[in-house]
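Please annotate the following for my students:
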Amino acid sequence: MTTPEDFGVMGALPTHPELLDWLAVEFRESGWDVKRFYKMMLTSATYRQSAMSTPQKLEKDRDNLFFSRGPRFRMDAEMIRDSALRASGLLSHEMYGPSVKPYQPNDIWNIVGLPGGDTRNYVQDKGDKLYRRTLYTFWKRMAPPPNLEAFNAPSREVCTVRRERTNTPLQALVTLNDPQYVEAARVLAEHALATSSGEKPDPLNLIYQRVLGRPAKAAEKKILLADYQIFLEHYRAHPDDALALCRIGETPAQADLPPAQVAAWTIVANQVLNLDESLNK
C-alpha cells in the first residue's frame, strides 16, 4: 500500500489484501520466525524482478502498484555505506557487540554536548570497528552522523515507517569526499591493480565486477580510461598529491604499488561508486 504509516480511515487501501492475510497466517504458523519471513519475501520471484519497464507495463501499472516490475529507488544511507565497504573488501562481518564510532567530522558532538557528559567528545574507533556494518554505528540524536543524515537517515526520535528519499548535491559531496568512501575507493583500486594480471591487465573491469556485478561497456571504458590517463599524468607530475590521497583512511596503502597509479585508479573507482547504478536499487 502507498501509506504504510497510516492504517486508519485516511490511509490508502491495500492493493493485495488476500496476500497480506496469507503472509500474516504464514508468519504466525512459522512460529513468528522473523528471519524466515524476510528470507521468504526477499527470495520471491516478485521481489527479484528487474526494475526495467516496458510501454505495456507503464500503461497497465504506471505506479507499480501491482508489482509488475521491481522498484527503483536510491538506496538508504546505511545500504550505500555498506555497499561501498563490501565492494572494497573492507566490510567487517562481525556480528553483535557494542556500537562503534566510524569516521566523522570533528567537534560535532562538542557543540551540543553537556559539560561533563560522556558523549561530549567524539573519539573515533580504530581497526575493524571502522568497517562494521552501519547498523552498529553509535547514534547521538542531537548530532547524528552527517554522512547518514545527508541520505535521509531518520533522526530516531520517533518511529519511521517510510523514509524520505531526496537527491541533493550534499549526497555527492559525501560519496566523493568522505574519508570512508575515499578509502573504500582506494582499497578497491589497490585490489584491482594487485589482482589484475596477464598480458592485458584490466583493473577497470575488476572494479566494475566488484561494484556493479558486470563488465564495463565499451562506451564506459572509453570515458573512464581517458579519465584515468588524465589523472595518471597529474599524479605523476604531483607525487605529493598521490601520496596524500593514498594516506586517506586507517588502512595502510600497499607499498609495492606505484602511488600515482593507485591514486589515478582511486579516482576512477570513486567515479564508479558514484554512478546511479551503484547508488540505486
Remarks:
- DSSP finds 13 helices and no strands in the chain.
